[in-house]
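Input (structure):
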């Protein structure tokens, strides 16, 4: 679970808040298979997908529910959203739109959120360097703020574990949490769990909704599983 400011035993200072425990994601079971014939797919992806794992309509509904949960937890506080590029960008923009709607209809006086974009790297090849490399902003600006990282997928969780440790020991925000569109059930996981997660999915190679293979599939509305033919077709893709 993402590191949090511990719940105080006395009334919290104004810039702190008490955050509820993690809400469970919607579980996509291992045996769920949605046949491609039931969905419209762009011609350039014909034969490149094995199955649809999460249809776009379900994604839209889950993003709205995550926004409702976040709004309730941070009510009265401005959140500083950090979009982790590139894969998290579509989720980020849809989440922001939903957060604005809930904030406006809730007649709140505070600014709902501010935001930045970053890239995070803690690996060279397949090996962890033990050092988090953050580019795109000066993270020292996050000191004392309520920070919410917006990520596309939590796979092994190693990068986010390193990032949360760095944030809490070096940056010291008022609070720090993680929102992720999907969380993969895999034996490679270090045990890290996001705080706001759309879907818990099987250990499959997914694409779509800005998740890519070799920069391809980012334009696909659904989340699908790439096929062997898809790997072969786009492995040497030049863009």
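Output (sequence):
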């Amino acid at each position: 679970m993402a590191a949090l400011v511990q719940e105080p035993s006395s009334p919290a200072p104004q810039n702190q808040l008490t955050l509820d425990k993690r809400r469970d994601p919607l579980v996509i079971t291992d045996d769920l298979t949605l046949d491609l014939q039931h969905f419209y797919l762009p011609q350039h992806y014909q034969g490149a997908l094995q199955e649809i794992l999460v249809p776009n309509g379900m994604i839209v509904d889950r993003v709205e529910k995550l926004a409702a949960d976040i709004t309730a937890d941070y009510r009265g506080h401005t959140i500083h959203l950090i979009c982790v590029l590139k894969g998290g960008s579509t989720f980020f923009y849809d989440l922001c739109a939903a957060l604005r709607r809930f904030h406006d209809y809730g007649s709140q006086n505070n600014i709902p959120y501010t935001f930045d974009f970053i890239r995070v790297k803690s690996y060279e090849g397949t090996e962890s360097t033990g050092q988090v490399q953050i580019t795109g902003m000066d993270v020292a600006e996050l000191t004392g703020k309520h920070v919410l990282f917006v990520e596309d997928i939590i796979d092994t969780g190693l990068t986010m574990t390193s990032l949360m440790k760095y944030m809490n020991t070096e940056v010291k925000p008022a609070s720090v949490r993680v929102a992720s569109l999907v969380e993969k059930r895999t034996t490679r996981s270090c045990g890290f769990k996001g705080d706001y997660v759309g879907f818990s999915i099987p250990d499959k190679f997914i694409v779509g909704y800005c998740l890519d293979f070799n920069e391809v599939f980012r334009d696909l509305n659904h989340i699908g599983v790439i096929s062997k033919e898809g790997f072969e077709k786009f492995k040497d893709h030049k863009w």
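Notes: The chain has a mean pLDDT of 86. Helices lie at 56-73, 89-105, 158-171, 228-234.
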